Fold this protein.
Amino acid sequence: LTIGIDPPEVYPEVECFGPEAEALLADLAPVGTLLRVEYDLDPRDPYDRELLYLYTADGTFVNLELVARGAAEAVLFEPNDRHIERMRAAEAEARDARRGLWSAC
């Protein structure tokens, strides 16, 4: 589970821009891709799911890229706030440019 973002769902219900967000994630990190992971202060959520920041081999910050392309909203999951200001700035830029879900939904 990624930290700091809330992408549209595709399961159990398909939300607006969910399939497109899922496709973008698959483009950024295809199944089998080796990713670098980073934890914040709390490595698990209340459901015991691991919370991660993801980076590709070339250094792309996957969580941030999804927000910047309009495929996820920036969300603060306290106490994990290491990158929230960057996420919020990327969301504002995506919203203003009407990227992704900001134009589709």
In short: DSSP finds four helices and four strands in the chain.
